[in-house]
Amino acid sequence: MDLKEELEDRLKVFNAELTSFLEGGEPEELYDAIRHLPLAGGKRLRPILSMLSCEAVSGSVEDVLPYAIALELIHNFTLIHDDIMDNSHLRRNIPTVHVKYGESTAILAGDLLFAKAYEALNNLNSRIIGRLSSVLTEAIIEVCEGQKLDMDFEKRSIVSEEEYLTMIKKKTSALFRAAAEGGAIAGGGGEQEVESLRVYGENLGLAFQIRDDYLDMSSSMETLGKDIGNDIRNGKKTLIAVYALTHAEGEEKKQLDRLFGKRDASDEEVRVVYQIFRDTGSLEYAENVAKRYMEKAVESISILEEKPVKQVLKELARFAVEREK
């Protein structure tokens, strides 16, 4: 089975539906702003996960597409607002919405995407609109809570691993959980099936975020890219940083205390911090934790009927911890 082909088949269906849903609208600049990021590409993992979950319980993809659109619009709403808060200039290799259209229009664009997400839900079977609305709303609340925790952690010298996992369970994993759970509901799955896919989505989201932390630290270092420099200068409490801060000793501990979170750290000082992360085994530790969550995700769907889409879900979990970007 070729995972890339399986995902691309569903991606084509989803992208066509999303483009159609976002057509038109006045004032033109505002609607251009809401299309700017969603139509610029992206992995579309959340909507595709909802489609796969729907199929896994013998549902039709058409039954879940409105919910898939809602998930992607909410995800992009969070990205627009995150970019404003982080003062990021690029997203998906294009200018961020606030850079291209101005901060005020970007805030409005994010708000409008939020509203359009709930508009999309109105195209669902009326029997399940209320339940799926509740699933999505629960996730959005957690995403906002998680974003605030993430920001607060940058101001603290020490964060526990438990606190970090709670933060990413909210900020990242909540929408993955909602995607899988909602897809199963839209497909008419039984309660046991819905619960197994809910657990799958949550663990997939945790593995995905920890792998993101790992990639930001390992692959970016070769060129001292923006991500790794910013994460270290801003004191970003990834699992890698959390582990290093609690396990470094002696001179390494002193250097971390002095350099991690130093806003004006030089490139050389960033390299020193990165090397400490490696020497303390932090990158390897994060990799292993991500794999554990991947295994939990795969185990959680053991009760599902054996069919090709179940294998796609298993391969997707492996992709989450093996991908290189």
Tell me what the structure shows.
Strand 1 (90-91) and strand 2 (94-95) form a beta hairpin. Helix 3 (45-56) crosses helix 8, helix 4 (61-86) packs antiparallel against helix 6 and helix 4 (61-86) packs parallel to helix 7 (126-153). The chain is built from 15 helices and two strands. It has helices at residues 3-21, 28-36, 45-56, 61-86, 97-101, 103-121, 126-153, 161-186, 191-218, 226-233, 239-247, 250-259, 267-279, 282-300, 308-322, and strands spanning 90-91, 94-95. The protein is an all-alpha fold. A two-stranded antiparallel sheet has the order 1-2. It is globular. Helix content is 76%, strand content 1%. The protein has a single domain, classed as Farnesyl Diphosphate Synthase (Orthogonal Bundle). Mean pLDDT is 92; it is low at 220-227. The longest helix is centred in the middle third of the chain and has 28 residues, at 126-153.
